[in-house]
Amino acid sequence: MNTTIESDQELFSIINKEKDFQNSHLNLHPKENVMINASRKVLGSILTNKYSEGFPGARYYGGTHVIDKIETLCTSRLKQFLKLGEKSNDEWLSNVQCYSGSHAELAICMGLLNKGDRILRIRGDFDTVLENYYQVDYYNLDKKGKGFDIVDLREKCKILKPKLLLVPSDVLTSFIDYRLLSEICNEFKIFLAADISEIALLIAFNRYGKEENNPFRYCDIIYSNTQSSLGGPKGGFLMLNNSKNPGMFQKVNSAVFPGLQGGPHNHQIGSFAVQIQGMLTSRTVEFVAAALDNSTVLAQTMLDSGIPLLGDGTDTHLVSVDCERLGVPCELISKILTECKIRHTYRKFEENRSSIMFGTLVYTFRGGSVSQMTILGNLISDCINVGVEIFNKVGKLDIPIETRENIFQEEISKNDRLKLIFDRVSGIISELETIYFD
Fold first, then answer.
1. CATH of domain 282-431
2. Which of 22, 63, 69, 192 has its Cα between 20 and 30 A from that of 414?
């Protein structure tokens, strides 16, 4: 039997191509980070051999007393990482078995709600899944995207009477006021659940605003993926405030397993335990500070170039272009950025509102500086301005959508300014540190 990845040349060549891709592109994707080497080694360890359905001390079969310690250790480290170590053991109860952040969200809904109950959330990618079981309605951002439209939210809570309010962390670049959301939820007896996937790292290192911005002070339940800001393996976790909701954790826990999933991925849980422990260093403090400096410079440079941003700036490592105020579809801007090797993401969060979002974690991990970011901010702004010009030229023509898309692509391909931007972005990428994969 072949025992090395190099012996599988077909797969190994694809991995090498992806490695080259990651190092040859400017990664400003807000949902990506880089795993530490020790964490990746655990992900490929013998822990993946183990089948252990159930939970520590309550598995479906014997021979799991050793593997139980992995999950218990991960749970303990997560609590310490999020500065909950001083809390009593039964105040925040957690599940680290979730296969993803979306699994955690579904488990919360299954555990807290009955079929047909109403959920209030920002429009997102998993609405159709939730709509199979629940009534889903949407709240909005305020006009500038600085925060949620609280008047709209409160009115919908009053009229629609939802059982659960889901709060994302991948829409706003400003600090979220969880205290205000909690006051509304308490008034109308609504569960408040916060997805902290994009901000968990900032919360852990006390870089996410003031007391009112701490979800652990005001939310009933917290959930997250384990990769976006935390840089771990693909997975998820959830934590429930047991002191506010005694007896509810078992329902949510059972929704994860056996409700949604099979046995836990022990290699992923062990890898995540190593990842969060490895980040408890002074170097991570410096890394977080540098990532925030880079995002501040990126936002200000784009604002100085006339690019409208949600919230007119940023409080976090995220920067988001307001495509509604820009007047150009996010899909067109995305194509142009992709053409120039600039990775990003975009999402529609209301029927007629969308944004292009950037994040600075991977860029900072590769040693990217604020001086380089100033240059990149101007280049990204140039990309967006090219998109505005192309849209003004082509976007309003009364022609079939498919024809318009083809013309867009032709205009992008032949644009000389974009070729110059591509070369300058490539030059900065070549100055960044290489991500090694041993």
1. 3.90.1150.10
2. 22
